[in-house]
Amino acid sequence: MADREQPVTLRTRKFIRNPLLGRKQMVVDVLHPNRANVSKDELRTKLGELYKASKESVSCFGFRTQYGGGKSTGFALIYDSPEALKKFEPHYRLVRYGVATKIEKASRQQRKQRKNRAKTVRGTAKTKGATKDKKK
Question: Of the candidates 29, 48, 49, which has an alpha carbon nearest to the alpha carbon of residue 38?
Fold first, then answer.
């Protein structure tokens, strides 16, 4: 992996301290010449070192590589503690970082079909295999 040895420069702008949510929030510009892009995991590590925080309390998302490559821009949140991250971050991002587990549920189409099947038996006695009579 020669890619990981290539130098990466991080620049932060629009830095805001948000005490109500217990975090620092900023826009991150990543300069990565001779590299396609940088993984969010690597960015979390580098931002943690930069702001003296653990990797577990850093959240990175929304990165887009500029046309022509070499520069990506995204958003980063550095929480005061991993507990604050668990409290305020959306669940899907917690799953991404390995902090929470994904809730397994039936597909959207299956849930809709189940709902519509339940509508047909509404108000009828609950018997095994109750079906609607079809007249031709």
Answer: 29
Q: Length of the chain in residues, anyone?
A: 136
Cα(113)–Cα(90) distance, integer angstroms: 28
C-alpha distances (whole Å) from 81 to each of 3, 61, 65, 86, 131 are: 31, 18, 29, 9, 56
Q: Which long-range contacts (CB under 8 A, 24 or more apart) does 45-48 make?
A: 46/8, 46/10, 47/10, 47/76, 47/78, 48/78
Tens digit of each residue's pLDDT (9 = 90 or more) over 60-113: 999 999 999 889 999 999 999 999 999 999 999 999 888 889 989 999 999 999
